[in-house]
Design a protein that fits this description.
This protein has 306 residues and is α+β, with helices and mostly antiparallel strands. Helix content is 40%, strand content 14%. The chain folds into 2 domains: 63 residues, no CATH class; 217 residues, no CATH class. A hairpin with a 5-residue loop joins β1 and β2. α3 runs antiparallel to α7 and α5 packs antiparallel against α9. The longest helix is centred in the N-terminal third of the chain and has 33 residues.
Length: 306
């Protein structure tokens, strides 16, 4: 919190030696309460605009704009979700009639293509550089740092709702995973160091082979090098922290929904024209567990009822 006069809101000593609480910034001034030459936050006279050059007011304004943008994006996502739900209502009703709990998730329609040679080579070059560091002169420092973070990563990889979360990712096909293309799967020193902690006898050559063996022949176009048709080809313990810890809002909602993994169904759909979801051609994919294995169904989105 910041003080009304622009100073940090630390407590102040009064004449008796006691500390008084900080003065908090007042709410923004709007409408008739603010003149055109006043800052909307502190009321100070300004030459032009509605914002003074005080650090407190500028910080509050940036925060307000960020919150406004977040709400706008959320409203757009909710409106798009409502249109998709309406378009997929026959499928959703059919799944519910089976006693299942469908959840709407994102979906990418990226094509499956051969992994480009340059991407594979770039990843292996990066992997070799990381291995040289993890097994190099500073290895004890890296292992000590990884040891402190190991429990947190393990909890993220095995936390509650992960089974349901896997369905969301399979139905989505990894929209967020595509950022791993330029980031080379986010593989880093802590990830490799933690592999050594789990297997102290592991050599650099054996660890390298673990990753090489998981490189797929084909992946989603412009996606992560490990982003195959049915999801990430790496074991969870071999993935970077961000891969196990990040969830989009719809995946979070699905994981927190309380549905058992055996009854949950993730439903994703994409359309040729997002501005006309009610009528545009589209593809849909839904994923569920069937006898412990993930069953995936993919088909064109049915035409809307006349």
């Amino acid at each position: 919190m910041t003080g009304y006069d622009g100073d940090m809101a630390s407590s102040r000593a009064d004449g008796t030696g006691r500390h008084t609480p900080p003065r908090l910034a007042p709410p923004p001034l709007h409408g008739a309460a603010r003149r055109e030459d006043q800052c909307r936050y502190c009321g100070q006279q300004v030459a032009h605009g509605a914002l003074c050059d005080g650090l407190t007011c500028m910080t509050r304004d940036r925060a307000a704009r960020a919150e406004q943008a977040r709400r706008h994006t959320q409203a757009q996502d909710e409106a798009r979700g409502a249109r998709i739900t309406a378009r997929l209502s026959p499928l959703i009703a059919a799944l519910q009639a089976e006693g299942l709990t469908p959840h709407l998730v994102p979906h990418t329609s990226a094509r499956v293509v051969p992994v480009p040679v340059h991407l594979r080579d770039a990843y292996l070059l990066r992997l070799d550089m990381l291995l040289a560091e993890v097994f190099g002169p500073e290895e004890e420092t890296h292992l000590a740092a990884a040891r402190e973070d190991l429990a947190k990563r393990q909890a993220a990889a095995e936390g509650a709702g992960q089974e349901v979360g896997v369905l969301a990712c399979v139905a989505c096909r990894g929209m967020c995973c595509a950022t791993g293309h330029d980031e080379l799967a986010f593989t880093d020193v802590p990830t490799l160091a933690q592999q050594r902690l789990r297997d102290p006898e592991l050599t650099a050559e054996a660890l390298r082979e673990r990753y090489v063996a998981r490189l797929p022949e084909r992946h989603l176009q412009r996606g992560c090098v490990f982003q195959a048709e049915m999801g990430c080809t790496l074991d969870r313990n071999a993935r970077a922290a961000i891969c196990n810890e990040f969830s989009c809002s719809l995946r979070q909602r699905m994981m927190a929904g309380g549905a058992s993994a055996s009854r949950a169904v993730a439903v994703g759909a994409s359309f040729s024209n997002d501005n006309d979801i009610a009528h545009a051609p589209g593809r849909m994919r839904h994923a569920r567990y069937d006898d412990g294995a993930i069953a995936v169904a993919e088909a064109p989105v049915p035409d809307p009822a006349p």
